[in-house]
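Narrative of accomplishments. A recurring question from our advisory board has been how the design workflow behaves on a single, concrete structure rather than in aggregate. To address it, we present the structure tokens for one chain from the evaluation set, followed by the sequence designed for it. No filtering or post-editing was applied between the two.
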């Protein structure tokens, strides 16, 4: 009310704008001055002017009101419908196998959002490259970015029936040294595979086969051609496994499960378009994972 009086230049106009009586305004200002122990306004018959203390108080009080209004606007925006451009970065194979269909369905459900998706197996700089969201798989490095875990992928050793017929099937992790191991060049551990025996013991195996490639689907093609054994995530090999084109080798020996993360720039607030898409993607990945488990059990 004090800010209104200063901006209106008097009690009468401030009362009219606030829709209250002039006496109610006067009482509020008097109560404020009494609480502060200072005169804030010089009153004359024609006009009300702030004192030196009143000017300083008005300056800060008006800022507080402006920030409160901005906070209200932020809250309204966060509750609003998603709209605008949404720039997403995702690993190439995961984007093809899991995200592309989700993006299409999301675009249909939210017509006011325009999605721009970039598929690249290398990490992007979210802020400098202008991305709203990145999907990352594996262990995250410490950073100021916000991250939400939206799923997991499991690694398995994969080989073609042709390769296994020619070279024989390994019966233990130790047998892998006798085989050609195809390598994914962006693996965080380099050429070393971290495998877990059925006992839970971690074993390390060095991959040194005839093919190294920076894309999982290309690695799968090398497997199907009979070049060797590869350590691949389930979203890459599952369809070909169901088709009988590849087999799981040493099913009791698995790679460490890898987290699937939605990573966003730092900040206290998440834009509606980002928040709604991440929720949409998390639900789809959860549903797809449940269907895959049912199919696996049925096959067994």
């Amino acid at each position: 009310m004090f800010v209104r009086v200063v901006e209106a230049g008097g009690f009468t106009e401030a009362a009219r704008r606030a829709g209250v009586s002039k006496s109610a305004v006067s009482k509020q200002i008097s109560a404020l001055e009494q609480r502060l122990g200072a005169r804030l306004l010089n009153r004359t018959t024609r006009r009300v002017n702030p004192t030196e203390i009143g000017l300083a108080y008005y300056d800060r009080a008006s800022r507080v009101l402006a920030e409160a209004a901005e906070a209200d606007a932020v809250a309204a925006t966060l509750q609003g419908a998603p709209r605008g451009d949404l720039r997403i970065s995702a690993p190439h194979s995961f984007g093809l196998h899991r995200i592309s269909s989700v993006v299409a369905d999301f675009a249909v459900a939210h017509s006011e959002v325009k999605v721009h998706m970039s598929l690249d197996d290398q990490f992007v700089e979210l802020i400098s490259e202008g991305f709203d969201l990145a999907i990352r798989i594996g262990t995250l490095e410490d950073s100021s970015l916000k991250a939400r875990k939206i799923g997991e992928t499991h690694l398995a050793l994969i080989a073609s029936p042709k390769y296994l017929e020619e070279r024989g099937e390994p019966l233990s992790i130790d047998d892998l040294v006798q085989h050609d191991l195809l390598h994914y060049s962006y693996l965080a551990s380099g050429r070393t595979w971290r495998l877990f025996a059925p006992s839970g013991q971690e074993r390390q195996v060095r991959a040194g086969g005839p093919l190294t490639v920076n894309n999982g689907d290309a690695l799968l093609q090398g497997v199907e051609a009979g070049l060797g054994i590869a350590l691949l995530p389930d979203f890459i090999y599952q369809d070909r496994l169901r088709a009988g084109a590849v087999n799981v080798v040493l099913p009791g020996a698995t790679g460490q499960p890898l987290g699937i993360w939605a990573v966003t720039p730092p900040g206290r607030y998440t834009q509606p378009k980002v928040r709604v898409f991440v929720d949409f993607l998390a639900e789809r990945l959860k549903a797809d994972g449940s269907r895959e488990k049912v199919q696996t059990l049925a096959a067994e």
